[in-house]
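hi got a favour to ask and not much time before my train. below you get a single protein, a line of residues and a line of whole numbers that encode the local backbone shape. could you go over both lines and see whether the tokens make sense for that sequence. a few lines back from you is plenty, here it is:
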Amino acid sequence: MHTGGKDGVRILVCTVGKTILHYDARCLADLHAMLKCVGDWVDLGGADEQKPAKDGTVEAWGRSPDNPLGGWYGLKKGFRGRFGVYVPPLMEALGLAELEHNPKNNRMRAK
């Protein structure tokens, strides 16, 4: 994962095999603020764009019209989902969040 620019917006570029996903880079600060506000563990979720996200998850928040961006943080149509899969590990690496590392149903919280 690295940062780049697209249409004047700072983005995160996530390469998974041959698939390239783009997320608005504001998601890092916005998600950290949301997690701080919640003050507890939040389920990650993780669903493709075409599938509904489970309510109350990081994935659902990353698509919600109620988040600071007012919708999807994913920028590439058809590849806007999986926010709850790819962004949380980056936040952990940056020291912004703590993640669980179970086989499934993982959660995160702000540091």
Notes: The chain has one domain: 26-110.
